[in-house]
Amino acid sequence: xxxxxxxxxxxxxxxxxxxxxxxxxxxxxxxxxxxxxxxxxxxxxxxxxxxxxxxxxxxxxxxxxxxxxxxxxxxxxxxxxxxxxxxxxxxxxxxxxxxxxxxxxxxxxxxxxxxxxxxxxxxxxxxxxxxxxxxxxxxxxxxxxxxxxxxxxxxxxxxxxxxxxxxxxxxxxxxxxxxxxxxxxxxxxxxxxxxxxxxxxxxxxxxxxxxxxxxxxxxxxxxxxxxxxxxxxxxxxxxxxxxxxxxxxxxxxxxxxxxxxxxxxxxxxxxxxxxxxxxxxxxxxxxxxxxxxxxxxxxxxxxxxxxxxxxxxxxxxxxxxxxxxxxxxxxxxxxxxxxxxxxxxxxxxxxxxxxxxxxxxxxxxxxxxxxxxxxxxxxxxx
Length: 382
Ligand SMILES: Cc1cc2nc3c(=O)[nH]c(=O)nc-3n(C[C@H](O)[C@H](O)[C@H](O)COP(=O)(O)OP(=O)(O)OC[C@H]3O[C@@H](n4cnc5c(N)ncnc54)[C@H](O)[C@@H]3O)c2cc1C
What we know:
The protein has 382 residues and is of the alpha+beta class. The protein has helices at residues 7-34, 39-48, 66-77, 81-101, 104-115, 234-270, 282-310, 316-340, 351-359, 369-379; strands at 120-124, 140-144, 147-158, 165-176, 182-190, 196-198, 212-223, 227-228, 272-273, 276-277.
């Protein structure tokens, strides 16, 4: 067992860390305040190859693996989570379904632009009436000749309405299985297809520089060839995508937790009270030591889940543990970092205010903490 990074992984982590500090940090507070999407940052991330990290070179990827993506996500989230979730959703929810399940023609059509960051894709699973219970999908797609006719709506879909969004993959009921359950399939819907409407962005508590919309499909017609993978495989497909995605969200949460440590150390040395730096007090030192402990153990949890996944071993339980633990400690660290900053921690000009606002969604998105516990319990045979 070796948890040390290779030279290549260390170099990747350092280059993304430099990028986050030099390119993301100076501009992100303004985007966050104004709720604007950081197109220029995304363009530069595309040039660095970050959107192609875990994909084969034959499709325009960087030939890395899922762990490389996680390392990059951790370093970006250490500075900002809106940018990190944009990358996470673009790769693990946007491009990955096409890479894993698409036909050669679908891959040739979509992957070059998605892997270069020139275009983004969304993953439409959640609906206004159903999230955790994804099998409760109401959106329907009926085959009419050589076209799917889609009707329904999707809620909270990341990267679905930017100027560079090229398509969304949508889960829909396409029939009934022999046992009477819903037949679910996944269909690619290109941006601009008549009948596909993107609502204005939500007003969110956090991740305000990321892109999230409700989508509606009203007799929206796409070619039958836009079916992703086999008909009826939608359920298995999104389970796989979400299992992997949990490791990526865990990495993002570890980044936020580590960013809280970074900012707290800096502030504890700068801020004076009672004639000395607040960091001279053991109460503050212990808070920061506990924050470091939590970030470290959560990092080991996602390294373990990623190692199992890359070794081709079962990793469902470990991915759920990593996501549950990392999101819990991210919220803890954000709360403590804010406390260490006192009144300034409640001011939006300090990065910890962003970390605090961005932490809560980590316990909700890509499977709530309750859902992670359900997955762990089920895997334990309960
Ligand atoms: C900013 C943002 C971005 C998102 N991006 C995407 C995206 O790109 N694509 C996408 O498809 N979705 C996306 N989502 C949706 C997200 O994954 C869901 O919000 C999440 O899975 C929870 O679903 P829900 O909101 O319907 O909550 P619900 O399922 O209604 O749950 C409400 C509460 O009940 C609890 N609960 C539900 N069932 C049980 C049970 N059996 N036992 C115990 N507790 C239970 C939940 O844990 C939760 O606390 C995004 C959400 C947000 C806020």
